[in-house]
UniProtKB/TrEMBL annotation:
Domain of life: Bacteria
Residue span, Cation efflux protein cytoplasmic domain: 228-304
Name used for this protein in its record: Cation diffusion facilitator transporter
Coiled coil region boundaries: none
Localization in the cell: Membrane
Location, primary (coarse class): membrane
Membrane topology classification: Multi-pass membrane protein
Family classification: Belongs to the cation diffusion facilitator (CDF) transporter (TC 2.A.4) family.
Length: 394
């Protein structure tokens, strides 16, 4: 409830999450809230750590300080990512959000490495921990604060579909675990002289390192060109197929230039006997309407196909049947029959499993094997095959 109150209080037009300005406002709010809470937690835990002489509490305090710095970088990242497109960056600066998240990830790693060293030194040279009730209560309150912050970042991240804020939510939830472990060590140290503090500090540091590596993996993936969201893929395909005269789609390619900044191209199969002016109007309408509806930049290429020729339709069915002998083939498109008399060239594209290791030699072998199978049915037929890979399905 409080999360919704903050959104309604500080973000105008908060329902229009596709608007870049509104999205940036969400990111700014999440960053400011993160800075305030993490700085307060840092001050509280550092005080508790110094009073109790606990390396685990101190490590957790500096973890919160790094989280505050992360929130600063998040704000800067959202601000820079919202810059309009320019001559050097025609698709905008949206990927800066991923870069800012990557910087945060390395900062988390740095904090983890530092406290691996500090905790190891405490194990080798243990010192007594002073337990006091008020500092312990403050630790418990800090855990509740992190639980709320995790839910708040998760709420914002889901609302604007931000991987950076979703990662921040996960990071805050991890802090709940580490702070709970630290609080437990604080209690246990009251009843034993065993240097539990150093070992718990080591666990906290290792968890921080794990979080850092996880965040690096999550932020590198879109920068390297990860597979697009399956829901977006299906919405594009279904959307294009919903228009008149479009009978099939293939060769969908999606490029991600940052959250809410996608460029997509797709081939649409249309009847070859329709006026090119008429079908061009349909394609233009589809590009315009789907680009607005899906918040993408969509380009549609027309592929005219003959759907009324009896011979072509019969031959296409035979080819589809033959392709069942080749499990690696997912689909076929752009089927044409060229030639006069009994000698024919069957020209088409095959889509293969993208996850398979498929070399140029493998492609040639596929062409030869299919051609041999085809000639057993039609000795005078020859196939001209282009091998495609599917870039949208895992």
């Amino acid at each position: 409830m409080f999360s919704k109150f903050l959104v309604s209080r500080f973000i105008k037009n908060n329902q229009d999450v596709k608007d870049e300005g509104v999205r940036a406002s969400y990111g700014f709010l999440a960053g400011v809230v993160g800075i305030i809470i993490n700085l307060l937690l840092f001050a509280v835990k550092l005080t508790v750590g110094l009073i109790s002489k606990s390396i685990a509490v101190t490590a957790d305090a500096f973890n919160n300080l790094s989280d505050a710095a992360s929130s600063v970088i998040t704000i800067v990242g959202f601000k820079m990512a919202n810059k309009p497109a320019d001559k050097e960056h025609p698709f905008g600066h949206g990927r800066i959000e991923y870069i800012s998240a990557l910087i945060v990830s390395f900062m988390v790693l740095l904090v983890g490495l530092q406290f691996v060293k500090s905790s190891f030194d405490r194990i080798l040279h243990p010192s007594p921990i002073i337990f006091e009730l008020i500092p312990f209560v403050l630790l418990l309150l800090s855990i509740l604060a992190k639980i709320w912050l995790s839910r708040f970042n998760g709420f914002i991240g889901k609302t604007i579909d931000s991987n950076a804020l979703k990662a921040s939510s996960f990071d805050a939830l991890g802090d709940v675990f580490t702070s709970s472990t630290v609080a437990l060590s604080f209690v246990i140290s009251r009843f034993t002289s065993f240097p539990i503090d150093g070992y718990i500090g080591m666990l906290v540091a290792l968890f921080i390192l794990y979080s850092g590596f996880s965040l690096i993996k999550d932020t590198l993936s879109p920068l390297l060109g990860e597979a697009p969201d399956k829901e977006l893929v299906e919405n594009i395909k279904k959307g294009v197929l919903s228009y008149d005269h479009i009978n099939g789609v293939h060769d969908l390619v999606i490029h991600n230039y940052g959250p809410g900044r996608c460029m997509a191209s797709i081939h649409a199969e249309v009847p070859c006997d329709i006026s090119i002016v008429s079908i061009h109007e349909v394609i233009d309408k589809a590009e315009r309407e789907l680009s607005k509806k899906l918040n993408i930049y969509l380009v549609i290429h027309m592929d005219p196909v003959n759907t009324n020729d009896i011979e072509i339709n019969a031959t296409r069915k035979e080819v589809v049947k033959l392709l069942k002998q080749f499990p690696i083939v997912k689909s076929m498109h752009d089927f044409r029959v060229v030639g006069e008399g009994e000698k024919k060239n069957l020209i088409f594209d095959l889509v293969i499993e993208h996850t398979k290791v498929f070399s140029t030699k493998d492609e040639e072998a596929l062409r030869n094997d299919f051609n041999n199978a085809l000639k057993q049915l039609h000795p005078l037929y020859n196939s001209v095959i282009t091998v495609d890979k599917n870039y949208t399905d895992l």
